Amino acid sequence: MNRSRLVVCLKDSIYIHNIRDMRLLHSIKNLPENSTGLCSLSLNCHLAYPISNEVGKLQIFDAGSMITKLVIEAHSSKMAAMAFSSTGVLLATASEKGTVIRVFCVKNAQRVMEFRRGVKRYAQIVSLNFSLCNNFVSVSSNTETVHIFK
Fold first, then answer.
1. What is the Cα 52 distance to its own chain's centre?
2. What is the rounded CA–CA span in Å between residue 63 and residue 17?
3. pLDDT tens, residue by residue, 12-48
């Protein structure tokens, strides 16, 4: 949810509502199963959601103008977490393996940064966030660790 949109992410569909009157503006149906409801909405109405159950492939959708934007092939395994920067220009992603965090530019789908959280032990990423200044990415996992990347 942001100041203009409410996004409801269900198992196989997404519904976008106008926050002022709760009117349904758009629906995205027949998506691959997303049992955790993984999606991210930026303040400038960019919506990211997974479009594959096998690999970390995600769609960027403009929930302001209801236009499909980019497809980002972020990881070789299924997506576990994603988060937009406060400006909505950057998107951080993590896969189910939890070893690599990638940051992409939403305008052109180019990888901007890549961080390694570990190589030997898989981890379940439970939180992924940008700092307000967008200079840091924090990641926490089930391994009782918190990583902060610059």
1. 13
2. 9
3. 999 999 999 999 999 999 999 999 999 999 999 999 9
> pLDDT digits over 97-106, tens only?
999 999 999 9
Its pTM stands at 0.94
- How many residues in the chain? 150
| Contact partners, residue 49, CB within 8 Å, separation at least 6 | 9, 14, 28, 31, 34, 38, 39, 40, 58, 59, 61
Which 3 state secondary structure label does DSSP give 50?
A: strand
Q: Are strands 100-105 and 111-116 parallel, antiparallel or unpaired?
A: antiparallel
Which region, left, alpha or beta, applies to residue 98 given φ > 0 means left and ψ of -120 to 50 means alpha? Answer: left
- Residue 9: closest CA among 72, 57, 56, 51: 51
If you ran DSSP here, which 8-state letter would residue 121 be given? S
User: Two tokens at 20?
Assistant: 């002022």
